Request: fold
Amino acid sequence: MTLRIASLVPSLTELVVALGLGHCLVARTGFCIHPAEALREVPKVGGTKDVNLAKLRRLAPTHVLVNVDENRLDTVNAIRAWGDVAGASAPQIVVTHPGGPEDNLALVDQMQAHFGHVDGVAQRAAELTRALRRELDLTRPGAWPERRVLYLIWRDPWMTVARDTYLSRMLARVNWRTWPDQSGGGAGAARYPALNGAEPWLAQVQQVLLGSEPYAFGATHVAEAGRLCPNARVLLVDGERLSWYGARAVPGLRYLRELAGAAHD
Reply:
C-alpha cells in the first residue's frame, strides 16, 4: 500500500516533514505553512476547523492526522463514515493530543508506530527524541522564580489559556504560572477563557505575553494590554515557537529559556 498522509494540523505537518515523510503528504490545511519549501506542492483542503471533506476524499489519503484541540469531532466522524459506504474504506485516523511539552516524546513514538517502517523515519525519530529530552532537561521549573503571567491569544474579547493547555504547561517549564487559575477540561471553549477586564487578579499579573498567533498582536496592542494589567510588563512573543508542538518544541524550549532569562535580568 502506498502511504498517503493528510495532515489537518500545522504542528503535525511540520513533524511529518521533519521525520522524512514529506514525500507522503497529499493534503494539508491552509495553516500548515512550515516548512514552506516542502509544502509548496501539497494541496490545501481548507482550515483546521473547516475542512473541505469532498476535496480531501478525492485525494484518497491512507492516514489522516488530527488533534483533539484543533480539529472538530464532526470532521473526524465524517471521515470515519467514508468506510460505511459499500466498497469504500476509510483512512486510518491518527488522533493526537499532547497536553504539554513532555508529551512530545509520546507524540514522536506515536508517529513512529504508524510510519516507522519507512526508510529513515526511525533514525530521525530517535534524533528528535534525543533533542527533546535534552531541551526538557534544560528547562525545569525549579531553575526559575515563579511569575504570574497572562498569555493573551485574542482581543475583543480578550482571551487567554487555561492551565491544562499545552501553552500553559509550556510556560510552566520556566515556572511562569498562567492566570486565571483554572482548568478547561479535555476539549472545548473552557480551555480558552474570555476575560471581561474587571477580574481582580489582573492587578497581580507580573507579565503579559502577546502571542503572534492566532491573533496577530503587534506593537499597537502593547499599551492596551498594559491597561488591562497595570502592574505588568507587556511582551510580544513568537506564538508559533511557544504553542506548536512536535519538532517545533526543540527550538521552542530554547526560546522559552531565552525569554525567561531576559525577564529576570
User: Anything to note?
Assistant: The chain is about 35% helix and 15% strand. The longest helix spans residues 121-138. The CA atoms of residues 44 and 116 lie 25 Å apart. The longest strand covers residues 147-152.
